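FYI - complex with cytidine-5'-monophosphate, inputs then prediction.
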Amino acid sequence: MLASRRILLGITGGIAAYKTTFLTRLLIKAGAEVRIVMTESAGHFVSPLTLATLSRHEVLSDFVREEEGATDWNNHVELGLWADLMLIAPATANTLSKMASGTCDNLLLACYMSAKCPVFFAPAMDLDMYDHPATRKAIETLQGYGHHLIPAGTGELASGLHGEGRMAEPEDIVAHLEAYLRSHAPWAGKKVLITAGPTHEPIDPVRFIGNHSSGKMGFELAREAARQGAEVTLVTGPTHLQIDQPQVSCIRVTTAREMLEKAEQAFDRADVFIGAAAVADYRPREAAPEKIKKQAGEMKLELVRNPDIIQTLAARKKDQYVVGFALETERETEHALAKLQRKGLDAIVLNSLRQPGAGFGGDTNKVSFIDKNSEITPFELKTKAEVARDILHEIHKRIAH
Ligand code: C5P
C-alpha cells in the first residue's frame, strides 16, 4: 500500500525521535518516498545525517538554507502539496498544541498548515503531560480537523515512570498508515480476476504449442489493482514473473482448459474480470504419452479448438464487468468493437501494434480503451505499469456508477 507514496515525516523533539530511524527505514523498505522535516529540538535526539542517509533526501529544519550565499529557501508550500500523506511522529505536547492553535513558528508547522493530504500524528510524552486536559483538548481539536491519531501506548517511559504516553512502535505506525490507505483505496472491497501470460498446449511430454506472451501486462494489472486496494486472483500461464503482494492470490496453470477451470472457480465472486492472457486458440487433439520420434517425411498434427475463456465467462456474468484485450493488425477499432460484441464484453483494450515498443514481451505498451458504448479513450505509449493504472482507472470510472 505504501509503494510510491510520498510521505512527509515531521519529527519533533522528544526522546521517541530515536525511533524515527526505524520508522524511516520501514517506510523506505515498503517502497514509500520519504521527506523529513524536523524541529530544531528533534535534532538533539536524532541525527539529521542518519535520517538523510535512510530517507535518501536532505532533512530540513529551517526556512532558510544554511549554505553560505544561498538565495533560495525551503518551500513549505511545495512540500505540503508534494505529500500524499503527512505523519508527525513523535508529536510532542508543544507541537500538538501549536498545530491545534495554528501557531506557525517553524518549518514543520508551516508544512503542516500547507498540507492538503491526510495528516497522522503519533503523540509521545510523559504520562501526566499526555493526560493533561490541554493535551487531550489539542488531540480532540486535531481529530476535529479530520487528522488521524495514532494513539500512544502504555509502558515504561523515558522518565522511568510507567503509564500512557509511549509513541506507538514504528511497525504499528506503518500498519496504521497501510490500513488507512487500504480502506481509502479506490479499489478497496473489490475483487478482481485476471488471466495472464501464454498457455502451453502439450504435443507430447517435452513439446508444446505456445506463444510469446510474457505475462507482463496481466501481472502489472494485478500489482496495480492490489496496490489500489483490490483483492486479486491472478490465473497465469507459464511465465517466470513473480508476484508477492499478500492481496494477490496467484494460481499457475499450463493449458487453456486449466486456465478456464481456475478462472471459472473465481469468477462468481469477482466484481471485475480482465482477460489479459494470450490463450492458445487450438490444442493438439491428444498429447502423446511418450516423446514423438522423428520419422521420415512429413508429420501432421491434428488441432482442436480451445474454449474461449472470456466468452465462456462473459456468457454467465451477473454483475461482473468483463474486459478483454484485442491485438489487431488492420481496421483495429472496427475489429476490436466486433470482438467486444461477439464475446459479450463490457470493454476491450486495443493494443496498437503499429506503434514501435507496443505489444508482446517489452516493458511498454500503447493502448486504447473501448467500452461497449463505443467510447474510445486512446493513451500514449507508456510503461506497462502506467498502462495498468490507466486501464484500471477507466474500469473504475464505469463501475463506480
Ligand atoms: O479472439 P482473441 O484471441 O483475439 O481475443 C482476445 C481476448 O480474448 C483476450 O482478452 C484473451 O484473453 C481472450 N481469450 C480467451 N480465451 C481464448 C482466446 C482469447 O479468454 N481461448
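The two ends are 25 Å apart (CA to CA). The first helix runs from residue 20 to 29.
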